[in-house]
Write a structure and sequence with these properties.
Order of helices and strands: HHEHHHHHHEHHHH
Number of strands: 2
Radius of gyration: 22 Å
Largest sheet: 2 strands, antiparallel
Strand content: under 5%
């Protein structure tokens, strides 16, 4: 068997390994709060996340991706040595996947995007040297460790404070839900629609300019407002604790937000697993390095199925940390965190800020906890999570360097 065929087989297996680990770690971003609040059981959360991730990856996954994510290293630096580029991409996938695998085993949520960046950084240092690294991009990544959770926390804190002040602290919370609830329904529909139309459908060439997307999303939000108002008007009080009923009414919005996050995750993060594989296959077939490569549908499907398999196998581990160990989650708190995550990611994307959904999700959960006082936050768990974020780049980079050396030694 030719070396090129062997490398392609190894690359596809490495891509599947990466997708499995992405699914196992990142599922917590979308589903952890829904499980912790009781809106979904773990089995249902895993099923919903798997289906939404596969749909996101196959329907609106990245069909054309940069050969090196985030541009840390210029691919054209390897125009004369495409073989080393192939080895480096393979090492990056293996190194980042191994780190995410370890983090998942330790039940720690980490950014899979930043992990692949760390992998590329590692192979870039040993191949093109310090001068060949775009350190401004690395600085942006480091800044998001602070910016993402900070902005996410503020938005989630603001959302839950409104719910707490105008609904949960009111003598008649059911009556308040009927007045204020439709605005939350409309806001959720507006944000999720805008995020989908403006950002999520670009790969189907259905994306709109921001102004037009905003107008269409606003119309969808108004329709959702009216439907929500109609439903809540007909809702009759039960012989249950009124505050418990409010929590139950928040469940559908929480599950909707979680499903959207899983769909968006499949659409965007599948590129972390299959993008480098597509780059490897393209270089081997053409013998040349290019700035962008096409990602075939079968590879998107394989990546989506790999993510789903990872969710089934290990998704519960990180979900437990994110949903249960940071702060106590109820449906209204979970909704605040998930809706805040979608809003934060949309705003930061519009501003051109590279953010990690993992970091935003954790920041939102912390923000919801702060709305109840700092004593409601498990600072020990937060310290462990932040430490894992800081370690991600160097850990994935070191693993990538080790794999790069082994691959070069083995294949020559």
């Amino acid at each position: 068997m030719e070396i090129s065929v062997i490398i392609i087989i190894i690359a596809v297996i490495a891509g599947l390994y990466s997708a499995i680990n992405i699914g196992a770690n990142d599922v917590a971003n979308a589903m952890a709060t829904s499980v912790a609040s009781g809106a979904l059981t773990i089995k249902r959360a895993v099923m919903v996340a798997a289906i939404c991730d596969i749909l996101g990856a196959t329907l609106v996954g990245v069909h054309v991706t940069n050969t090196i994510r985030q541009g840390i290293v210029n691919p054209m630096s390897f125009s004369d040595t495409p073989q080393l580029f192939v080895y480096g991409m393979l090492a990056s996938v293996l190194g980042s996947s191994l780190w995410v695998n370890i983090a998942t085993y330790l039940k720690l949520p980490v950014s899979t995007t930043h992990s692949i960046i760390g992998g590329v950084l590692g192979f870039g240092l040993v191949s093109v040297g310090i001068a060949g690294i775009k350190w401004t991009v690395v600085l942006y990544v480091v800044l998001t460790w602070v910016v993402s959770p900070f902005f996410g926390g503020i938005i989630a804190y603001f959302i839950f404070t409104i719910i707490k002040k105008f609904i949960l602290s009111h003598p008649d919370p059911i009556a308040q839900v009927k007045k204020i609830g439709p605005f939350f329904v409309g806001a959720v529909a507006f944000i999720l629609s805008l995020a989908t139309i403006f950002k999520g459908l670009k790969n189907l060439h259905l994306d709109m300019p921001f102004g037009k997307a905003t107008a269409v999303s606003f119309l969808i939000g108004v329709i959702a407002f009216l439907v929500g108002a109609m439903f809540l008007r007909k809702y009759k009080k039960r012989d249950l604790d009124p505050y418990y009923q409010v929590e139950l009414l928040a469940n559908p919005l929480q599950v909707l937000s979680a499903s959207f996050q899983a769909f968006s995750h499949g659409a965007n993060d599948v590129a972390n697993a299959v993008g480098p594989v597509a780059a490897i296959v393209t270089v081997i077939h053409t013998g040349a390095v290019s700035m962008e490569v096409s990602v075939p549908f079968w590879l998107l499907l394989a990546g989506g199925c790999g993510i789903a398999f990872g969710i089934f196998m290990w998704g519960h581990r990180v979900m437990e940390t994110v949903g249960k160990k940071i702060t106590k989650i109820t449906p209204t708190r979970g909704f605040s965190a998930e809706f805040g995550t979608a809003t934060t990611v949309l705003i930061c994307s519009r501003l051109g800020m590279p953010v990690s959904t993992t970091h935003v999700a954790i920041g939102n959960i912390i923000g919801v906890g702060f709305a109840r006082g700092i004593s409601a936050i498990n600072l020990g768990v937060i310290k462990k999570i932040f430490s894992a974020w800081v370690i991600s780049l160097p850990a994935a980079g070191l693993f990538s360097i080790a794999f790069y050396k082994l691959i070069v030694l083995f294949f020559g």
